[in-house]
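Problem 3 from the worked examples.
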Amino acid sequence: EKDIAIRNLSTIEDITLNDTYSQHIEAIKLLTDMIIDKQSYEEKIEKCNEYLENVLQNIESHNKPENLVLNKFTDVHVKNYKTALKKFKEMLLL
């Protein structure tokens, strides 16, 4: 719901910190629901990995000069999550 409301705003100045906080919590809930829905740990890890790949693609798209509205987003934290997820999967499958 917050995603839709934020996307429909005419200017970025109309977004409050409270909007972004509640949108963040809403996004975490959606991700959690997607993961819980999967049966095995491997499926849960794969769903997380798919989500992180999507985030990386979105960051890459945002950072293209023709799409850039604000400063570029960094993707270091997302890449770190992917590395941690890969190592976790390796530990789980030992």
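Problem 4, a separate protein:
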Amino acid sequence: MFRKLIFVLCALSFTLASCGRQVTPNRTGTSGGLPSGFMQIKFSTAQPMDFVNVWYVIAVNTEGAANGTNGMPYPQYGNQSYDWLNYSFEIIVYQLTGQTSPSVALYQLVTEHPAGQPPYKLPVPVGYTQGDILLNSNCNQQSTQFCLQINRRVFAGLSSASPTPSPSPSVSPSASPSPTPSGSPSPAPSSTPAVTGSWFINWFTVTPNPSSGATAPYGAVIDAPGPQGVNDQTWMATGEPYNTATAFDVPWNAVPPPGWPQVSIGAAQIAGGEVLNTP
């Protein structure tokens, strides 16, 4: 069902970035360790992470709340049925079988305006320089947390979407792009300033489907924050929307999650997160 599906493009066809560089996590309570223009997002799980069998997704809304919503990019919105409601970008941390370390992929949900048809959002891979997104896959030294240090200029995104979509049996043929091979991230313009605004961020875990290619680029959602788990439409972290024009360090903790659903896969059970920012 679409309510339990989220966009996860096949990373076998393209790898946008590697995690060869490591990030030193900042002290809780300060964003002073971050360079100007950077954000750090932390993702914590109940048990050690398994990047091969669980993919970790961070959804970002940089465009404000859609009418009648609270602005959060909830997991059930992450498909063509809901047209990626409140999704601007999606970050996936994953590891393919045979890889020695996890990688990071960044996608933008770009609105297309086909002639004579209603507009729709198209997920498009976004290239970036290695220094603009840095992954530490074990930043708490317990294998239950990763940290992403992100230059906010990557959220300037693409000015338009032009790839030709390929058919998918599970969605409209005009709604799912065909992956294109890419061996390394493409450079972002060095003159692009850091982007600011009031942003919403959400955390999910999904079951990967790396062998499906463009025919079924989806993975089932395993866990998401909130009292109704993957179907929740009420949860919002303290501090959201985040004012990225200011310095902040905002953690949230889901252990123990009072009344929240528990999942059988400890590596997929979300235990908390944190967002740090330096203007």
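Solution to problem 4. The chain is about 0% helix and 30% strand. The CA atoms of residues 5 and 262 lie 18 Å apart.
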